[in-house]
TrEMBL record:
Name this polypeptide is given: Alpha/beta hydrolase
Keyword Acetylation on entry: no
InterPro entries given in the database record: AB_hydrolase_1, AB_hydrolase_fold, AB_hydrolase_sf
Span of domain AB hydrolase-1: 45-270
GO CC entries: membrane
Keyword check for Cytoplasm: no
Length: 281
């Protein structure tokens, strides 16, 4: 089932891109929010599993994928991204949703639990929590502003294997697919990032990561699952244990040996994640 491409305007007029897979309108839609520097197409295969059963929407953040690039890099601050998610929900008629948030998308879900608690019918936090491991911030900071201009997919794969070696990709074909979601061929014939590399400047200009404990506590009344890559560079074991103490009904699924972030296509995850989602009307 192919998605419909939606072009919507944020409150300041910046055009956002979303992919919209149709499904049973009587069930709560899934709103899929990606990690930073990723695009809505990361959820293509995930959406194929759920489309038809319920509507699935995946969003390109500002400066990512097919969404517009901002003139002012301050537009790329995380608080602006939250507003964009809310604007997208209004434009796409999503008064309630189950949010599936990978990394940065999970942070968005936690913040939404405070800003718009009536929106959330359920949440899947994919390898993220209220405390972000400095290793992850260092990793993404060095990657975000880099545009090597690869001549082909093989060179892109070789580079990605060095900068994110623990991402749980099964084989060479999976790495090539991931690289194809990360880079697109430009007018010069080379492969370039699918994001505005000036996002790195916005990250450097920002303050230290905020304490997300209060917004995580906003999830207390919401059915929630945490997917954890056991070797994650973003989510430490101590944080996972604290999250389970804070929210005893949090459903935890661990992927041994995996770094940041699971794709949600791993065989060990498909059953538990889909079962959790299927239990939400």
């Amino acid at each position: 089932m192919n998605p419909v491409t939606r072009r919507i305007a944020a409150r300041d007029g910046l055009v956002l891109n979303a992919l919209d897979w149709p499904g049973d309108e009587g069930r709560t839609p899934l709103l899929c929010l990606t990690g930073i520097l990723r695009t809505a197409h990361d959820y293509d295969r995930f959406a194929e599993r759920h489309a038809g059963k319920r509507r699935v929407v995946a969003l390109d953040y500002m400066g990512h994928g097919e969404s517009a690039r901002a003139a002012d890099i301050a537009r790329y601050r995380p608080e602006r991204a939250v507003n964009d998610v809310l604007d997208a929900c209004a434009a796409l008629h999503l008064p309630r949703a189950v949010v599936v948030g990978t990394s940065f998308g999970g942070i968005m879900a936690m913040i939404l639990s405070v800003l718009r608690p009536t929106l959330l019918r359920g949440v899947v936090l994919n390898d993220i929590g209220p405390v972000i491991d400095p290793r992850g911030l260092s990793q993404v900071g060095g990657f975000a502003g880099n545009d090597p201009g690869f001549p082909g997919i093989d060179e892109a794969v070789a580079y990605l294997r060095t900068v994110m070696p623990r991402i749980p990709l099964a084989d060479e074909e999976a790495w090539r697919h991931f690289a194809g979601l990360t880079y697109a061929r430009g007018e010069d014939g080379l492969l370039h990032p699918r994001w505005d590399t000036r996002i790195a400047e916005a990250m450097e200009a920002g303050a230290a990561p905020p304490d997300l404990g209060p917004v995580f506590r906003g999830l207390r009344p919401v059915p929630a699952m945490l997917v954890w890559g056991e070797e994650s560079e973003f989510l430490a074991a101590d944080t996972v244990r604290a999250m389970v103490r804070e929210k005893p009904d949090l459903e935890l699924v661990t992927l041994p040996g995996a770094g940041h972030a699971p794709t949600l296509e791993e065989p060990e995850l498909v059953g538990p994640v889909d079962d959790f989602l299927d239990r939400i009307p």
